[in-house]
């Protein structure tokens, strides 16, 4: 048990430390923000000069951004080794986006020796921090057996997590999984619901797929007007398959139905969607 | 390097379609116009860097033969890929190329693009030689291989200081495909386009 003097000293030290932090933090935040404003103006060297002392003082956000400047060659020659060094420091400090980028570097083997185990480890940590891109990527590692044994059930679990969080590509992938019974029990209604969620967010491949579901009445009530709306929206984004289906379907619809489909497509606005 | 590149395109692309010669004066005007549009977007300080780069991405998308370059870069693996893999690959490749060029161009601030030369290349292509100059820094030599098809000029390759971006990508992808086949390449591209940039 500490004596009174020692306890007092500890309290004083703790108070000074907390006081120091509360005084320093707003200043650090202000400096970081000044760096961000310089970055926004395209003054990348200025941003680097502002963020470097902050990073040296332990700011993981500054470390991460410096890594990104070196990776993309903004204001400095592109230097993967420096980028990875800064991202490693940021990741060790708990910065989730740095973990994700570092995992990518280990998979690529660019600027660092390829190492799937380390890539998996960082991706998993980032995924548990809630990064949907990392959750989706982990699912794909299981799907393709990259650094892990192929496991469609685990793949589906990680991808569904990203889908529930609203990641459109993951939602589209879950649509296909439920359609084919891949890693999940086949369920055409769930397939349609996931395709529809991704389509509502504006993902063209999902718009093409949900158009097909509406056309066939597969997992969702048949509705040819709705089918044409989704084919039209996908075609507008350059989906050639959807454009062909739209042309074919137009020949089957009345003038009123065509007009309704056009109105629905014109008034469509992408928005966040999920199935739960 | 440009000669070797043109030979590749002559082998892989020319037999597939028929198009007219690409006039060098039109080619240089196209590249000059592209540079001017890019500078105009990049100098607009009323919107964020992300918004400026989104606009720039649209300009890059219009200006590059992304899908054709994607098929060329995949080389023989294209023939082995199934329809779903091809579709995903082209989507991911387009995202990756647009992101790469946009960030590269977005990184240029206060620089000027100067046309040095423009000439016919391999009969139907044109090669526009430019320099990107900035005060206090050595000029970067950038050549643009372009083609006129269906009345529109588009970029097939960018050669920076003698290094072809398309051939570099082709070599990089070939080594990944040799190691991990197309599944590995798709995963790599997925990760490349999912990389996080600087955050506010």
Structural write-up:
Chain A has helices spanning 4-40, 44-56, 60-72, 80-92, 96-108, 116-128, 132-144, 152-164, 168-180, 188-200, 204-216, 224-236, 240-250, 255-266. Chain A is mainly alpha-helical and 276 residues long. In chain A, helix 1 (4-40) runs antiparallel to helix 2 (44-56) and helix 4 (80-92) crosses helix 5 (96-108). Chain B is an alpha+beta fold and 200 residues long. Helix content of chain B is 56%, strand content 20%. Chain B has helices at residues 2-12, 24-42, 49-63, 66-74, 77-80, 83-106, 165-193, and strands spanning 112-121, 125-133, 140-149, 152-160, 163-164. In chain B, helix 2 (24-42) packs antiparallel against helix 3 (49-63). Chain B is globular, with a radius of gyration of 17 Å. Classes of the chains: A mainly alpha (276), B alpha+beta (200). The interface between A and B is medium-sized, with 34 and 28 residues.
Largest sheet of chain A: none
Structure summary, number of beta strands of chain B: 5
Structural class by sheet pairing and helices of chain A: mainly alpha
Distance between the termini of chain A: 53 Å
Query: Helix count of chain A, per DSSP?
Result: 14
- Count of discrete structural domains of chain B: 1
Quaternary organization: heterodimer
Biggest sheet statistics of chain B: 5 strands, antiparallel
Blueprint of the fold:
The complex is a heterodimer of chains A (276) and B (200).
Chain A lengths: L3 H37 L3 H13 L3 H13 L7 H13 L3 H13 L7 H13 L3 H13 L7 H13 L3 H13 L7 H13 L3 H13 L7 H13 L3 H11 L4 H12 L10
Helix pairs in contact in A: 1-2, 2-3, 3-4, 4-5, 5-6, 6-7, 7-8, 8-9, 9-10, 10-11, 11-12, 12-13, 12-14
Chain B lengths: L1 H11 L11 H19 L6 H15 L2 H9 L2 H4 L2 H24 L5 E10 L3 E9 L6 E10 L2 E9 L2 E2 H29 L7
Antiparallel strand pairs in B: 1-2, 2-3, 3-4, 4-5
Kindly summarize this structure in a few lines:
Chain A is built from 14 helices and no strands.
């Amino acid at each position: 048990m500490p004596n009174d003097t020692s306890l007092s000293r500890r309290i004083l030290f703790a108070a000074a430390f907390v006081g120091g932090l509360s005084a320093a933090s707003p200043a650090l935040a202000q400096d970081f923000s000044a760096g961000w404003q310089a970055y926004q103006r395209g003054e990348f060297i200025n941003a680097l000069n502002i963020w470097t002392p902050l990073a040296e003082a332990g700011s993981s956000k500054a470390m991460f951004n410096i890594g990104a400047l070196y990776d993309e060659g903004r204001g400095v020659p592109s230097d993967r080794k420096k980028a990875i060094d800064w991202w490693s420091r940021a990741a060790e400090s708990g910065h989730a986006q740095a973990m994700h980028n570092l995992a990518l570097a280990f998979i690529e083997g660019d600027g660092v020796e390829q190492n799937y185990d380390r890539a998996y480890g960082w991706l998993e940590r980032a995924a548990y921090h809630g990064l949907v891109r990392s959750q989706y990527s982990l699912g794909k590692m299981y799907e393709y057996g990259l650094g892990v044994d192929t496991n469609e059930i685990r793949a589906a679990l990680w991808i569904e997590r990203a889908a529930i969080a609203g990641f459109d590509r993951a939602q589209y992938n879950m649509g296909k999984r439920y359609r084919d019974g891949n890693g999940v029990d086949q369920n055409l209604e769930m397939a349609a619901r996931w395709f529809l969620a991704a389509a509502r967010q504006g993902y063209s491949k999902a718009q093409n797929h949900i158009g097909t579901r509406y056309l066939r009445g597969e997992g969702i009530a048949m509705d040819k007007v709705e089918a044409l709306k989704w084919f039209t929206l996908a075609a507008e984004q350059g989906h050639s398959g959807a454009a062909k289906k739209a042309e074919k379907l137009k020949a089957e619809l009345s003038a009123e139905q065509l007009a309704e489909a056009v109105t629905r497509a014109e008034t469509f606005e992408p928005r966040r969607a999920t199935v739960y | 390097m440009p000669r070797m590149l043109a030979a590749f395109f002559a082998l892989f692309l020319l037999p597939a379609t028929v198009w007219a010669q690409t006039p060098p004066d039109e080619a240089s005007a196209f590249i000059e116009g592209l540079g001017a549009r890019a500078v105009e977007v990049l100098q607009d300080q009323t919107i964020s860097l992300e918004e400026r780069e989104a606009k720039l991405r649209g300009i890059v998308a219009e200006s590059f033969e992304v899908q054709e370059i994607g098929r060329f870069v995949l080389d023989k693996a294209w023939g082995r890929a199934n329809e779903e893999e091809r579709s995903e690959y082209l989507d991911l490749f387009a995202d990756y190329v647009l992101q790469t060029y946009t960030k590269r161009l977005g990184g240029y601030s206060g620089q000027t693009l100067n046309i040095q030369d423009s000439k016919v290349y391999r009969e139907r292509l044109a090669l526009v030689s430019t320099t990107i100059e900035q005060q206090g820094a050595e000029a970067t030599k950038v050549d643009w291989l372009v083609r006129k098809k269906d009345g529109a000029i588009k970029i097939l390759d960018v050669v920076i200081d003698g290094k072809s971006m398309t051939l570099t990508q082709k070599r990089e992808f070939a080594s990944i495909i040799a190691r991990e086949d197309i599944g590995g390449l798709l995963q790599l591209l997925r990760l490349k386009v999912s990389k996080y940039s600087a955050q506010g």
